[in-house]
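Re: your question from the hallway

Yes, I did run it. Sequences:
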Amino acid sequence: MDEAVARARRLIETADVVVSFSGAGLSAESGIDTFRDPDGIWNTIDPATVATPEAFERDPQFVTDWYAQRRRTMRTARPNAAHRALADAGIVNITQNIDGLLEAAGATDVIHLHGTMWADRCHAECGHREQIESRIPSLRACPHCGSWMRPDVVLFGELLPERAWQRAALAALASDVMIVIGTSAEVYPAAGLIDAARQSGASIVVVNVAGTVASRLANVEIRGAAGDVVPRLFGNP
Ligand code: BV8
Ligand code: ZN
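Structure:
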C-alpha cells in the first residue's frame, strides 16, 4: 500500500485542481451502513420497497419510518479521519452520501448529488422544504399544497438536483486528480463522473477496501479503509 500511497501523494501534490468523489464507504467507519457490501442495506431490504417514488406513493408511512430509523443512526454518527482530512484539504468534495459528515468535519464546498438526510421536501415538488434540526419528523402533509413531505434525497428513478449535477460535472471536468473514495461506482449518472474526469485528463486515485468497477479507471488504486488511507494522501500520518 505504501508505494501506491506515495504515487497518489505525488499526483495530488503536483495537481492544480483536486476533487473527491465519495460514496457510503467514506462513512462506514463512522458506523453508517453501506448499501452493497455483504452486510449492506440493500441486502436487508429491497430498494424497490423504500427508495423509489412509487414505493413512497404506495406506502408513505413505511418509507417515512424507514428513513426515520436511518436518521436516528446517522444522527449519532461522527466524522472519521477521512472526513476530517478531506475537510482540511480545502478541496471540492462531490458526494453521493446524505449523512452530512463532511460538513460536520468542517468541509465548506460539498456537492450533494443524492440530496441530504437533514431536510424534508414536498413530494409534489411545490417548492416547500424544511430543515431537520433535532426532532426527527414523522409522516406529515406539506403545509403549502397538502401533498406528503419526504426526505430531500434522490430516490431511484428521480432526477439528480440540477444545480448540484452541473457543479459536480464542471468540477470533475476541471480536475487534475479525482480521489474516488468508498463507492461501488454502480449508480448512474453519478458514477459517470469518474470516467468523465478521466476522459478530460484527470488522474484517478481509487481508495476502497475491495475492487470495484472503478478499478479499471484507476491510475492508482489503494486497497484500504478510507479512515486509514485518506489522511495519508494529504501528508497526515
Ligand atoms: C436517474 C437513495 C434519471 C438515497 C440512492 C431503471 C429505472 C430507473 C433508473 C434506472 C434503472 N436502471 C438504472 C437506472 C439508473 C439508476 C441506477 O444507476 N441504478 C443502478 C443501481 C443500476 N439511477 C437512478 O435512478 C438515479 N436517477 O437515473 O434519474 C432518470 C429519471 C427518470 C427516469 C429514468 C432516468 C438516482 C440514483 C440515486 C438513487 N438513490 N439512495 C439514500 O437513501 O441514500 S442509491 C444509493 O447508491 C445511495 O444514494 C448511494 O449513495 C449510491 C451509491 O452507492 P455507494 O455510495 O457506492 O455505496 P455502496 O454500498 O454501493 O458501495 C460502498 C463501497 O465502499 C464498496 O465498494 C465498499 O467496498 C467500500 N467500502 C466499504 N467500507 C469501506 C469502503 N471503502 C473504503 N473504506 C471503508 N471503510
Ligand atoms: Zn407541497
